[in-house]
Design a protein that fits this description.
Blueprint lengths: L1 H4 L1 H9 L16 E5 L2 E6 L2 H10 L7 H14 L5 H14 L3 E2 L1
Amino acid sequence: MRAEVFPFAIARRKSMGSVISVGFSLTWETPVLIHQGDICIRSVDGPREALRYLQRDFDQHSGQLYWNAVYSCMRALRHRSAPELARQCFIIACDNASIDVS
């Protein structure tokens, strides 16, 4: 009877045992270098650093290209897409925000 009154409790209890694999140590073959003028001010080596940059240091937290980069980095970290796709989306978001990258 308790399951009929609170059916979500049983489903929730079952999902608590699953483990989500996260690739915090994933790196790109070639890092993305962020420049200010002729000086490289930062190197972003993988999706974890890119996501951190997008969330903390990116001036523009809106727009489709920004959210594509955030989403692709998250998917790469959860092993749902290729890390290089996240790299490309990150570069495109930076270009869109007039951040000089190479």
